[in-house]
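Q: Here's a chain of 430 amino acids. Please give me its 3D structure as tokens.
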Amino acid sequence: MSFQDFLLDFKMLHVAGNKRTAVTRGLILWLLLTNIMVLVYRLTLPTQVDIRDDTCTLNLGKPFNENLPRPSRRLQTDTCAPSGNIMFLKTHKTASSTLLNILFRFGEKHKLKFAFPDGRNDFFYPSPFRRWQVKSYRPGQCFNVVCNHMRLQPAEVAALLPPDATYVTILRHPACVLESAFHYYHRAVPFTWKIGGRDKLEEFLRSPRTYYRAHAYNAFYLKNLLLFDLGSDNNLDADHPDVTEAIQSLSQRFHLVLIAEYFDESLILLKETLCWSMEDILYFKLNARMSASVSRLTPESRARALGWNGADWRLYRHFNATLWDKVEVYGRERMKRDVAELRRRNAEMRALCLEGGEAVEALRIRDRRFLPWQPLGVKSILGYNVRKDIHPELRSTCEKMLTPEIQYLADLGVNLWLTRLWGWLKDAIS
């Protein structure tokens, strides 16, 4: 994933066809400037700290925020205190932006202390997470919530949080992750530029090893991306012992792994785990794509995608099973009632907040504060318009529910100079 890998990718493309279109030149310029920005960002990072005596020194007798009592696990009782110490591992292309918005709103409401990145919206992804990447970090400093994109390093994260923190992440069916990641990122993955045909994903899946190189620039986006986000080698075969070990380790660390295909059921379990209210988990679906941009995988292509992402497929099946084990404990009838109530209240909020009650194409979003980040070269991510006649008491709540990640981070005081520069370059060559 080094700049040298990118140059080698480009040389292969040059030999393969020497196609010098304006778009390709723009992509090359974007990648060159991206590497320059990464270098500048590295130079602005603080010096790495001595980590031998650098863990969270929270006085467990005092909560961070007097408005939010210390968490207690819900046992055989109807009373518990809401939890505000949370680690959310935000995975890619899994509905994680919707869940992030829920966490932002809860944390802002209760004045929780977030561990935010500095200069960008992720913790220097895809490099492994280090605690000194946190904005204004000081050794021994404690936080309530860690939730931005990172490549997981459990010990580094644990050093920032109290011991009673709840660990949460979300997974999605690997074939859907690959389809979404390919659409969103393939223009930033040079080895895909030489793929011909109208359906580049279909062509890629016919013979992925023809195009894929394990350590090529941004290659991780197109193979076992979930496992990569969770800190493991994305090039492992499904039956590799390290995959088994990774699944076991994650099972021990994470209190709840949500499944995107059962998002509402997962949210009900999250509410139960954290002792939150139904109001805390209301949401609008964020970063959804236009249906026309979604590739419809044939059964054969779907099978190839799962074979290509075999390690992610093992990971997904394991945690899908654990989710339904938790549903059984929760009670299926109780779950049905609660999911129905969540959907009823979400529909009520859509009617109260949203013009037309649904998402619209990017070009139809009137207020740029609510315009989601778009993939390179296309505007396929939907967003929302707030109703013009919205009740004044609802405006703030509604706007927060539909605010995209980048804008919400800015509202919370995060300096996003590198992300904004990246966005300007992206828009300039699109």
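Q: Can you summarize the key feature?
A: The first strand starts at residue 86 and ends at 89.
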